[in-house]
Task: inverse folding
């Protein structure tokens, strides 16, 4: 399996998982709303029945206070109770046989034989005076103890449907991404083939020019061609580096970044002195990161040489700082315009100063790719005419 194929498989899997999670969440939310509405509807229906039964009791309640009897259907009579204003029971069905008197108006809840009943208490009034209370009890047909069973069943169904959604989503994601995968593979193959094909004739041409220079003829033109060839060779090498990094699998190892920074600064001191540039290095001691030492060294080299390259012609100062959280390279050079700053990490992008000094606009693109491979981030801030600071953040 190629590197790009593995990447697209991971992307397909991520898309399918996200789709499955969305469907599962949708089912859970929908189920919660459905169950809440269902229980609410049951409660409304139960209380509607209580109101109808209570009206039947109210129509005959006055007879009880006058010593008469009730003529109610047995299911209603066994669920009702009539109290006087002091809470004395005048008539009660079997449900209230063991329930102490209470006169809380509205809806209440009682427990009878481990069953929960809702009780509606209505005051009996005459001449704006309460002379008693009528109570009617009713059991909600869907008790709360059924909720875990119903919720568990709905949860299980949601998992099954979500799992099916995952496989369907994975199939369509892979099918949709297949053309993009094939295009990336063709593009990578083209880049590698073109780069390798260019290297051979360039090397042969360089050898021919060397031979011609020994003869002493056309020395100036040949020297110019050699310079151009060198630039093209650098371009090809950079393109190859980018192609390799696009399929690079990083293997972590502990890197003494303090020592690596100090060594890199020492390596570029002679180049800096030629331009009358001073490099200051103030690293924290004992800074260690996990990564590829060769690639990290390439980041340091690119940032330092970039700072030297864009230092002012009258000399300048470069400051390299290192902490456990970041690495920064600050120069007091020509700076970068604010409009160009967001694009400096793009491949082949060059500001005016870069074009004047040569280059292909690939150095910072390489730096960013290496930084991203390590899971870090890089940022840049600059003031035109005052200098630029590049900072690699390790705690991304």
Result:
């Amino acid at each position: 399996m190629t590197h790009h194929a593995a990447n697209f498989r991971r992307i397909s899997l991520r898309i399918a998982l996200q789709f499955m999670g969305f469907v599962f969440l949708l089912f859970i939310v929908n189920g919660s709303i459905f169950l809440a509405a269902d229980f609410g509807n049951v409660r409304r229906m139960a209380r509607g029945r209580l109101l109808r039964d209570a009206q039947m009791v109210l129509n005959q309640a006055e007879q009880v206070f006058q010593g008469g009897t009730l003529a109610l259907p047995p299911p209603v009579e066994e669920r009702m109770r009539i109290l006087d204003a002091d809470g004395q029971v005048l008539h009660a069905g079997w449900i209230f046989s063991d329930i102490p008197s209470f006169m809380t108006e509205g809806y209440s809840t009682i427990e009878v034989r481990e069953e929960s009943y809702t009780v509606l208490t209505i005051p009996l009034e005459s001449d704006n005076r309460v002379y008693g209370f009528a109570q009617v009890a009713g059991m909600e047909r869907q008790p709360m103890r059924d909720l875990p069973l119903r919720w568990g069943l709905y949860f299980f169904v949601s998992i099954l449907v979500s799992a099916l959604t995952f496989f369907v989503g994975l199939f369509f994601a892979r099918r949709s991404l297949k053309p993009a995968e094939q295009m990336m593979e063709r593009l990578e193959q083209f880049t590698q083939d073109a780069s390798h094909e260019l290297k051979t004739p360039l090397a042969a041409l360089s050898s021919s020019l060397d031979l011609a220079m020994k003869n002493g003829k056309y020395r100036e033109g040949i020297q110019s061609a050699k310079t151009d060839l060198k630039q093209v060779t650098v371009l090809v090498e950079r393109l190859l580096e980018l192609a390799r990094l696009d399929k690079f699998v990083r293997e972590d190892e502990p890197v003494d970044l303090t020592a690596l920074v100090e060594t890199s600064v020492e390596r570029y001191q002679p180049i800096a002195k030629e331009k009358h540039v001073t490099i200051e290095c103030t690293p924290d001691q004992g800074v260690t990161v996990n990564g590829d030492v060769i690639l990290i060294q390439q980041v340091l080299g690119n940032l330092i040489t970039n700072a030297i390259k864009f230092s002012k012609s009258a000399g300048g100062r470069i400051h390299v700082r290192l902490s456990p959280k970041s690495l920064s390279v600050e120069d007091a050079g020509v700076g970068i315009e604010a409009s160009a700053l967001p694009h400096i990490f793009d491949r082949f992008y060059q500001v005016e100063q870069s074009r004047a000094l040569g280059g292909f606009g690939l150095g910072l693109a390489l730096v960013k790719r290496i930084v991203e491979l390590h899971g870090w981030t890089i940022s840049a801030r600059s003031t035109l005419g005052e200098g630029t600071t590049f900072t690699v953040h390790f705690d991304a």
About this structure: The CA atoms of residues 87 and 101 lie 6 Å apart. The longest strand covers residues 115-126. Confidence is low (pLDDT under 50) at residues 354-360.
